[in-house]
Amino acid sequence: MQPKIHPLRTGAKLLRWAAAGLVAVLLTYATAGMIGGAIPTNAAWTEPETGVRIYIESNGIHTGIVVPVVTEGVDWRDLIRPEDLRDPRYAGYSHLSIGWGDRTFYLETPTWADVKPITVLAAALGSERTVMHVDHEPEPRVDDNVRSLLLRPEEYRRLAAFVRASFHEQEGQRPAHQFGYATYDAFYDARGRYSAIETCNAWTGDALRHAGVRIGGWTPFPVTVMGWFAPRPAA
């Protein structure tokens, strides 16, 4: 006579297998991300002594690229305007912090305290609903969450072209926008598909790589972006 298998025991065993499988997937993903972030592209690039100073910011979840509002023939004011803000006076600041990512993930996770597993899972599975997040701010100070680097004018223009192409402009029309977390930021419709492979931090790495900057081959996490730049004060 065959022994009777209790359904609760079977269910518990399946849950343990599923949990073990999930942990294995997460560990594999984390390991691949750290390896990809450590493999340099544009390996011969060196920072010039003079040029356009930009910054890379991180809040521990999202990274952004901080650029001057106007410099070296690049003027963001036709695309990013004062009326896009709850308080247009903040458009008087000298710099913009620009990032890209999944719409829901961006809107619902401004800080680690807001992270929900279901939001992370949905974003990781992939989404066509992407946004650009733009903060208006004064020139940042370098600290543990802000890095500074100089780009040659032609490198900066390549960076700006990549970033601009990420905004969903159509037939000369500016992308749709909505107010951001506060009075000084806004969200804009973006191009591209978000996934566990193409994260907001991978986009930052892609932009820097397109400019010609030395950066990891795949940068899915904040540390894989920020780790390439020394936390030193701007000259």
SSE inventory with pairings:
Layout: H1 7-38, E1 40-41, E2 52-58, E3 63-68, E4 70-71, E5 74-75, E6 95-102, H2 103-108, H3 117-125, E7 130-137, E8 146-151, H4 153-166, E9 177-179, E10 185-189, H5 200-211, E11 215-216, H6 222-226
Antiparallel strand pairs: 1-11, 2-3, 2-8, 3-6, 4-5, 6-7, 7-10, 9-10
Helix pairs in contact: 4-5
Give the overall shape.
globular
Helix and strand pattern: HEEEEEEHHEEHEEHEH
Strand content: 15-25%
Helix content: 25-40%
Which residues form runs of ≥5 with pLDDT under 50?
A: none
Main beta-sheet strand count, sense and barrel state:
7 strands, antiparallel
Oligomeric state as shown? single chain
SSE-based structural type: alpha+beta
Biggest sheet strand line-up: 8-2-3-6-7-10-9
Termini gap: 82 Å
Overall average pLDDT: 89
- Number of helical segments with 4 or more residues: 6
Number of strands: 11
Query: How many whole angstroms does the radius of gyration measure?
Result: 21 Å
Quick take:
By secondary structure, the protein is an alpha+beta fold. It has helices spanning 7-38, 103-108, 117-125, 153-166, 200-211, 222-226, and strands spanning 40-41, 52-58, 63-68, 70-71, 74-75, 95-102, 130-137, 146-151, 177-179, 185-189, 215-216. 33% of the residues lie in helices and 22% in strands.
